[in-house]
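Lab notebook page, bench 4
Experiment: in silico fold of construct C2
Operator: M.H.
Input chain length: 149 residues
Purpose: comparison with the prior construct
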Amino acid sequence: MVRNAVSAQNTGFETNVSDPTQNGTIIVGGTKRKALSPFPQVRLRGKLMRNGARITLFTVTSPARARIDIRCTGRGCPRKSYVVTAKTTKTRVSRFEGFLKAGIHISVRVSRPGYVGKYSSFDIRALKAPVRHDLCLYSATAKPVKCTA
């Protein structure tokens, strides 16, 4: 379930997604596989602007020692890529907070060898909440696939 909350009065937004796992397993490619626990969550909060969005909070909740790989494409990206190993369960990604122009695409991969991870992507738009896509990852290099519990 994707929650995109947009308030008409203050033009704020927050994107959040519920956990697709049941009993710590996810079916990927027809096979039950062990999921990261807690299953990663990517949270993006900010304000809508005429030509983009001002990101006020960007956090990734994942198990400690999970790899967080963030890529940014489009004109005006603060960084093209950022890779970090989570030290605690909540990691704040302040490098991507601030103003982002419309047209920027941010993808987040949270992975750990042998576990099903998460892929989230955001397309920043003008005066609209970012478009969000959530998929599962079985390997850090594998193509993201649809999650099924």
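Observations: The chain has a mean pLDDT of 87. The CA atoms of residues 71 and 86 lie 16 Å apart.
Next step: discuss at group meeting.
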